[in-house]
């Protein structure tokens, strides 16, 4: 009969221990043998050097610097990961370094790339206890990051792949220092979601620089390395355990709340990230892409950081002053006259704008009166006019293929006979239309295109209205065109990068005519009729300046230059809404004045000397039409006295005729203008063109008497008749009115 004995618990434990030690010894010998075999027989795959790894590191955003190296803005170019700059180890918190080593590789400074003790412990734990514990050192993990051959696949790594990785880690340790390995690991390891590297981790999750991470933040960062996508409760548990090991158990208090807040910041903007030139950064990077250039980590721009900061501050401060006038947006461009470098660039008002991402410096807007200087320069260069020539500022009806063009002045008043100097400086509309009739719209449109302005149509499309700025242009191109005036007709492309080679300059305008235009725009007495003597357009140093306002006050401009700089300002609304009682002198003008004053706070600005071809002398006007003054002329056009022609039109006997509109004219109602203010103007004149009174009948109804008749147009076809004193028709035309119905 067999005898059964009660098991000796102590003996069983000893047997298990003995068996375990035997197994461990066997497993260890096998592991060492396989490792040696892999080291001897495996391929010696070359690993990149520390310098190569650091050089090929690319942040996910390109950093824009100003001309002296000051960070201005960043543009994200990689939307797979969020990576920051490569940080040297001495810029990473010591608390984070300790936490990572304690969590990931406690014997980091004592092994040669493979921690055999940890590997055997992990193997035993998996076989005997069913625990899954990693034994990869920081060096082994780094090998998998910097070399795709050693990265973990979807099904994990085979035993051979693990030993290949281990041997690669040993080679890495032989070639790199421990500090280089730890630094590279912290800069390349994924932490959470798309966040890669310690710079992105610190500035996104913790909203601070990596050098300032404390024990609690370091513990959370370290456990994120172990489980980048682990659930919050597990992260809290692991972080608290690590804090206890670090001797900071008191930091476990309210740790769950801290982790919750940190993880919610995963999509936040970077802390401390510069954001002073967002539109300019996007613009210049787009130019690099268009040129086919590889995007560098850092782009050195032409901007000046201090001027850029002042420009943004001025824009926001002045817009606050215009809040009650329904003004929400603005854009400013500052350029260096000589080099063409863009020194400041504000594309919008930022948070004040309902469309902050729209770059209004490159958006097409109606130019208003800002084109008049180029028109008068062309007329002066062609010697059709001089600065002393007289133009008639009175009601004007010009027949066109689409009906009558009836321009009006901004203030709905007329000055009569005025000189070109007064007409340009005071921005009178009727004289400008008379000037473009001399130059022709087509020739003027070509001149504007030569100056880099993006006109989409020819001069016939715009007609006479081009003199008053009916074309859509950009602030950037218009500012550069004004720079050509500042350079006496020399045109060159803007420069956007500090190291850019200067573009070839070419002469577009007559230097003498351009100088005279600048002299007119600097004359505060000549502009006094419209702007007064004391306005934001006046500066204590020499400047030339022009304003402009588009139809229905949708766009407001102020552009001008000094001896060294050209400044352009646009004010309006991104959606095209009209402003309330805002003109160039009250909207864009104050911004222009502030920036010019800042630029010349320590530097004078004197008028450039007149170029060859400019003659100056005293001129007077018969009948005191304008006060006598010293005037500038192109050579061979100088006069000493100006008078109106004596051969005024004499009436030729004969019946009156309808002079305007022409027979068959088609009038179009503008749906954006109240019908009550839309009027057609008819004129009766004799054969010589002198207006004569007559009786007017429209569609059989007597409408009035006189040389002129104003009539509210009605849709449809109409018969316009001129009657003599007996009521008999002496002239008849047919017109048609099209467009929106009268309200």
Automatic annotation (TrEMBL):
Pathway: Cell wall biogenesis; peptidoglycan biosynthesis. Residues 650-730 form the Penicillin-binding C-terminal domain. Pfam families: BiPBP_C, Transgly, Transpeptidase. It comes from the Bacteria. GO terms for biological process: peptidoglycan biosynthetic process; proteolysis. Keywords: Carboxypeptidase, Glycosyltransferase, Hydrolase, Multifunctional enzyme, Protease, Transferase. GO terms for molecular function: carboxypeptidase activity; penicillin binding; peptidoglycan glycosyltransferase activity. It catalyses: [GlcNAc-(1->4)-Mur2Ac(oyl-L-Ala-gamma-D-Glu-L-Lys-D-Ala-D-Ala)](n)-di-trans,octa-cis-undecaprenyl diphosphate + beta-D-GlcNAc-(1->4)-Mur2Ac(oyl-L-Ala-gamma-D-Glu-L-Lys-D-Ala-D-Ala)-di-trans,octa-cis-undecaprenyl diphosphate = [GlcNAc-(1->4)-Mur2Ac(oyl-L-Ala-gamma-D-Glu-L-Lys-D-Ala-D-Ala)](n+1)-di-trans,octa-cis-undecaprenyl diphosphate + di-trans,octa-cis-undecaprenyl diphosphate + H(+). Coiled coil: none annotated. Its EC number is 2.4.99.28. Residues 80-234 form the Glycosyl transferase family domain. Residues 331-556 form the Penicillin-binding protein transpeptidase domain. The keyword Hydrolase applies. NCBIfam families: PBP_1c. In the C-terminal section; belongs to the transpeptidase family. In the N-terminal section; belongs to the glycosyltransferase 51 family. This is peptidoglycan glycosyltransferase. It comes from Pollutimonas thiosulfatoxidans.
């Amino acid at each position: 009969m067999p005898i059964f004995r009660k098991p000796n618990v102590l003996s069983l434990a000893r047997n298990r221990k003995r068996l375990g030690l035997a197994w461990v010894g066997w497993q260890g010998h096998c592991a060492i043998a396989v490792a040696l075999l892999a080291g001897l027989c495996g391929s010696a795959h070359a690993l990149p050097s520390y310098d190569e790894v650091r050089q090929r590191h690319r942040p996910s955003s390109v950093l824009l610097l100003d001309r002296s190296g000051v960070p201005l803005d960043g543009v994200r170019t990689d939307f797979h990961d969020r990576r920051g700059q490569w940080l040297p180890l001495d810029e990473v918190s010591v608390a984070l370094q300790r936490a990572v080593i304690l969590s990931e590789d406690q014997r980091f400074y004592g092994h040669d790339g493979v921690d055999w003790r940890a590997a055997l412990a992990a193997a035993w734990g998996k076989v005997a206890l069913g625990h899954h514990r990693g034994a990869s050192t920081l060096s082994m993990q780094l090998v998998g990051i910097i070399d795709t051959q050693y990265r973990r696949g979807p099904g994990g790594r085979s035993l051979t792949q693990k030993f290949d990785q281990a041997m690669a880690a040993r080679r890495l340790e032989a070639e790199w220092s421990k500090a280089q390995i730890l630094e590279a690991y912290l800069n390349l390891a994924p932490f959470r979601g798309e966040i890669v590297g310690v710079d992105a981790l610190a500035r996104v999750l913790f909203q601070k620089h990596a050098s300032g991470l404390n024990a609690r933040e370091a513990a959370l960062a370290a456990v994120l390395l172990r489980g980048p996508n682990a659930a919050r409760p597990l992260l809290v548990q692991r972080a608290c355990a690590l804090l206890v090991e670090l001797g900071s158990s008191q930091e476990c208090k309210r740790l769950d709340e801290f982790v919750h807040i940190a993880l919610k910041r995963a999509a936040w903007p970077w802390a401390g990230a510069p954001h002073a030139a967002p539109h300019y950064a996007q613009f210049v990077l787009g130019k690099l892409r268009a040129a086919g250039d590889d995007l560098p980590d850092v782009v050195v721009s032409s901007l000046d950081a201090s001027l850029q900061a002042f420009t943004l501050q001025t824009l926001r401060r002045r817009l606050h002053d215009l809040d009650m006038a329904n003004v929400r947006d603005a854009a400013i461009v500052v350029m260096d006259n000589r080099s063409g470098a863009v020194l400041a660039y504000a594309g919008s008002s930022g948070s004040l704008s309902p469309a902050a991402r729209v770059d209004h410096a490159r958006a097409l807007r109606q130019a208003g009166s800002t084109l008049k200087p180029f028109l008068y320069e062309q007329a002066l260069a062609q010697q059709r006019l001089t600065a002393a020539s007289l133009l008639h500022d009175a009601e004007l009806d010009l027949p066109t293929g689409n009906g009558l063009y009836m321009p009006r002045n901004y203030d709905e008043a007329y000055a009569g006979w005025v000189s070109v100097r007064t007409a340009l400086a005071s921005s009178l509309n009727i004289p400008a239309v008379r000037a473009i009739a001399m130059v022709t719209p087509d020739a003027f449109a070509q001149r504007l295109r030569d100056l880099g302005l993006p006109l989409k149509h020819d001069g016939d499309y715009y007609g006479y209205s081009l003199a008053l700025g009916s074309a859509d242009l950009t602030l950037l191109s218009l500012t550069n065109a004004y720079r050509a005036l500042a350079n006496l007709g020399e045109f060159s492309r803007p420069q956007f990068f500090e190291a850019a080679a200067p573009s070839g300059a070419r002469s577009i305008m007559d230097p003498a005519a351009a100088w005279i235009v600048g002299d007119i725009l600097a004359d505060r007495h000549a502009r006094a009729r419209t702007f007064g003597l004391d306005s934001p357009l006046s500066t204590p140093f020499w400047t030339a300046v022009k304003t402009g306002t588009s139809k229905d006050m949708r766009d407001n401009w102020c552009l001008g230059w000094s001896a060294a700089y050209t400044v352009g300002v646009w004010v309006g609304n991104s959606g095209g809404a009209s402003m309330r009682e805002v003109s160039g002198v009250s909207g864009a003008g104050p911004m222009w004045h502030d920036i010019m004053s800042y630029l010349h706070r320590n530097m004078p600005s004197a008028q450039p000397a007149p170029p060859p071809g400019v003659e100056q002398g005293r001129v007077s006007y018969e009948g005191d039409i304008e006060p006598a003054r010293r005037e500038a002329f192109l050579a061979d056009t100088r006069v000493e006295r100006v008078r109106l022609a004596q051969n005024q039109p004499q009436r030729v006997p004969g019946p009156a005729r309808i002079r305007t509109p022409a027979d068959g004219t088609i009038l179009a109602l503008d749906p954006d203008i109240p019908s009550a203010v839309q009027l057609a103007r008819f004129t009766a004149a004799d054969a010589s063109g002198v207006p004569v009174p007559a009786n007017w009948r429209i569609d059989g109804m007597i409408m009035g008497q006189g040389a002129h008749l104003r009539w509210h147009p009605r849709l449809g076809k109409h018969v316009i008749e001129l009657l003599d004193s007996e009521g008999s028709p002496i002239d008849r035309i047919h017109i048609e009115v099209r467009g929106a119905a009268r309200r």
